[in-house]
Amino acid sequence: MNSNKKNAILIPVISVLLGIGLGMIILVASGQSITLLFNAFIKGATGFDVTGKAAQNMRYPGEFLVTAMPLILGGLSIGFAYRCGMFNIGAEGQVLMGGLVATIVAILIPLPPIIGPIIILLIGGLAGALWAFIPGILKSRFNISEVVTGIMLNYTALYGSSYFIKILPGSTQTRTVDFPLSSTLKSSFLADITNNSRLHWGFIVVILAVIIYWFIIEKTTFGFELRATGFNKFGAKYAGIKVNRSIILSLMVSGFLAGLAGSLLVQGTFGYGRVLSAFDNIGFDGIAIALVGSCNAIGVMLAGLLFSLLKVSQPLLQIAKVPREIGDIISASIVFFVAIQWAIQWLIEKISKKKAKGGSK
């Protein structure tokens, strides 16, 4: 393994450990036991209480996976765009548009079981892709920053989706009617084995998304062209790559993944459309997840699981009378240490050189 690949794995691991370590220090400084933190992590991931005060509850790992699914897709969305030289900060709006269109189709169009949820998922993903097409075309044609247009479109999606959800038949000021069961990803089998959690078949979609992400980025000419455009668009143009098309397609693929996350939320996690007054932060959390996962398919999946664990552990910390903000501090610390990865890399190289000099004596 060369040094670059080794550091790509080592630096995120060190960042995670430093973030958790800082959380432990704050926990001890506030007069709490470190055991409470690790018990919350273990219980959130496995349902097992290491203190022995409660029996194993499989609802916790079920909810842990439910929370992780859209986060992983959000991370893949940001990671794909970043690998192609784009910063898709508009992923949050694409999540909302995917959820909105999935909600409209699920409520207004009767669909058969099995095929119906798949169709709705794809339509939701397509809605996210089309929403991402807007900053893509503006970037390629007029060189308008995708960051600026993405931020503006996030708020357009937030307020626009709320309006359209409210006018659907049977909707209240906060939500729509329940989707027909044939249009959801819910599973009585998965609910039964996880003590009535909201775990659903969307985990299959997430696994497929991770595999396809890796395959496109690492193994296809299409992925190479997108990455080449992001690395040096002038060099890519000289090599005969259609740069404008690559810019648009990279954002649209990123938007498709974000739209899938929105579909999963409404089809699986909730089973109805929601009127939101604020963002779910799937797209924004995806930025941190992509950074921690080094925009690598497996890395993003593991980072999504980590951030999900931090989220589901917060209520458990509260029950143990530990401030839930400890989880937020750990998340923010991990992102901070990833952001200063060059300092960590410099430190690793300095230690390696010192060891090499010591060994040569």
Write out key terms for the chains shown:
globular, single chain, 15 helices, about 350 residues, mainly alpha
Characterise this structure.
With about 350 residues, the chain is mainly alpha-helical. The chain has a domain at about 70-295. The chain is built from 15 helices and no strands. Helix 5 (about 115-140) packs antiparallel against helix 6 (about 145-165), helix 8 packs across helix 9 and helix 9 packs across helix 11.
In short:
This protein is mainly α and 361 residues long. It has helices spanning 3-29, 34-46, 59-83, 91-108, 115-142, 146-166, 188-193, 202-219, 221-231, 233-238, 243-270, 282-292, 297-319, 325-339, 341-360.
Q: State the end-to-end distance.
A: 26 Å
Poorly predicted regions: none
How many distinct helices? 15
Query: How many β-strands, per DSSP?
Result: 0
Instruction: Describe the oligomeric state of these chains in a short phrase.
Output: single chain
Report the biggest beta sheet as strand number plus sense, adding barrel if it closes.
none
Structural class: mainly alpha
- Please indicate the percent range of residues in DSSP E strands (runs of 2 or more): under 5%
Question: Could you give the topology of this structure?
Answer:
Blueprint: H1 3-29, H2 34-46, H3 59-83, H4 91-108, H5 115-142, H6 146-166, H7 188-193, H8 202-219, H9 221-231, H10 233-238, H11 243-270, H12 282-292, H13 297-319, H14 325-339, H15 341-360
Helix pairs in contact: 1-14, 2-3, 2-13, 3-8, 3-11, 3-12, 3-13, 4-5, 4-6, 4-11, 4-12, 5-6, 5-11, 8-9, 9-11, 12-13, 12-14, 13-14
